[in-house]
Amino acid sequence: MRPLDGITVVTLEHAIAAPFCTRQLADLGARVIKVERPGVGDFARAYDTRARGLASHFVWTNRSKESLTLDVKHAEAGAILDKLLGSADVLVQNLAPGAAARLGLSWEALSERFPRLIVCDISGYGDNGPYRDKKAYDLLIQSESGFLSITGTPDEPAKAGCSIADISAGMYAYSNILAALIQRGRTGKGSHIEVAMLESMMEWMSYPLYYAMDGASPPPRAGAAHATIYPYGPFPAGDGRVVMLGLQNEREWALFCTKVLQKPELATDPRFNSNAARTVARDELRAIIVDAFSTLTGEQVIERLEAAPIANAHVNTMHDMWEHPQLKARQRWLEVATPAGPLPALKPPGVPEEWNARMDPIPALGAHTDAILAELGYGQERIAALHAQQAV
Fold first, then answer.
1. Is 89 a catalytic residue?
2. For residue range 306-362, what is the model confidence (pLDDT) as tens digits?
3. Which residues of the chain are modeled with pLDDT < 50?
4. Is 210 inside any structural domain?
5. Total domains in the fold of the chain
6. Cα–Cα distance for residue pair 121/32, rounded to 1 Å
7. Contact 66, 31 (CB under 8 A)
8. Please, are residues 316 and 324 in contact by the beta-carbon 8 Å criterion?
9. Among 320, 314, 301, 312, CA closest to 239
10. By residue range, what is the domain housing residue 249?
11. Which of 42, 138, 166, 370 is catalytic?
C-alpha cells in the first residue's frame, strides 16, 4: 500500500508548478484527475517534441495522471466539476489570477459545500497585493526574486538552466498538501493552501538576502565558482576536461596543498591562509591551481582529490547523465508508458523499499474522459452529447 492510495486529487493545471506538485502526489499513490481544455490540453504539451515526439516538460511532470477534457466555461462544466469535487480530497489549480474564483472554485465558494476538501492555489505573486495580476513565468520570477542578480558571470547575469521558480512553488505546494492531509486526519476539516512563486523563491534566496543585510554588498556573480568560498568551482585539467572541486575549511586547504597541488608551502602562505584571504586573492590562486593541473588529465586530478580526500565532481553533460554509473548502480531508471511508446523515467527520490512508487502512463489528451464521466453517472448518450457540444 502506498501512502496516498485512496486519495483523489482534481487539478486544473498547466505549465510546470502545479503539474510538478501533483505528479509527486501521484508518485505516492494518489489518483490525480487532470482537467484539460478540449482539443488543446495543458499548453506544456506543445512546448517541444524532444521526447520521441512528446514535450519534455510534459513527460517529466505528468505521469500517473488521468486526463479529463472539459471546457470549464461550458454550461455543463459546473455540474461535472461539482461531481468530481464531491469525492475528491484535494483541488489544485494554477489558473490565471481570479479565474478559479470566477469558476466558483475559490476556497470561500467550496469550503462550506465540501468541508473536507483541501484547496491549493498556486500563483506567481499571491491573491492580493499590487502584483496580484502580473503574469508570472519562471524566468520572470527568477528575475523578480533577485536570483539573476547573484547568478552568472561578473559581466552578465544568467538564469538557472531548469525551472527552479516553478519547482520551488511545486514542492512547497506538495509538502503543504501532505501536511494538510495529516491535519485533516486529526480535525476532519480541509484547509486552504496558497503558494506564491515569488515567496517560494525568496525562501531559497534567504542566504544571499541575509548576506546583503543592512546595505552590505551582495554575493558577487562568480559563474560556476562559489561566490564566497575559494577554491570552490570548476578548474581545467591538461586534457581539456573540467573538474569541479570544493574546500570547506582550513584542514581541507592543507590537504589540498599537500596531496593535490603537491605544494605544501602554500598551506601557510599568508596570501592564502584563510578563506577570506583566498577569496580576495582568487585570481592569483586560480593561476597556481590551473598550472598544477595542466600536466594531469581530468581523471588524474579526480584521483588526487579522492585520495586527499577533497570533495569533487565531474562536470557532466545531459548525455553523460543518461549513462551515469551511480544511477545505474542504484537502479534508478524504470520505464513508463506514453502515447509515443515506453520512455525511461527516474524513480522518485526517497521512496522506501517497503512500497513502489506509482509509475503509471503519461496520458494522451482526454484519454480518461469517457471513463470518468461514466464513473460520475453519465450514460453513453449523454457523454456523446457532451462530445458533440465540445464540452469535453
1. no
2. 999 999 999 999 999 999 999 999 999 999 999 999 999 999 999 998 999 999 999
3. none
4. no
5. 2
6. 16
7. yes
8. yes
9. 301
10. 232-315
11. 166
